[in-house]
Amino acid sequence: MPGDSFYTSLAWRALRAKTLQAAGWHCAWCGASVRQSGAARVDHIKPRRDAPELALVATNLRVLCCVCDARRHADKGGRLHLGADANGWPTSPSHPWNR
What we know:
Elements: H1 10-22, E1 40-44, E2 61-65, H2 66-75
Antiparallel strand pairs: 1-2
């Protein structure tokens, strides 16, 4: 969330780095590499607003690529990000789901 100081905290940044490393820098849903700058999203499985006590619990986190993160938020009723169609599917022909 832009402007949310949680995401700039040292505790979050350290846990995020450990989560990415543990996942081998791959999306949990599609397996795509997220090593490219800006490609990785570390997602709270149970959102912070619903389970704030799990915000810094590693087992409540997963790595998603941008497209899968957009799909996850579309599934929750959120707005899609660029790179996904109205159903949340990736529009890029190079995305693993489209190969």
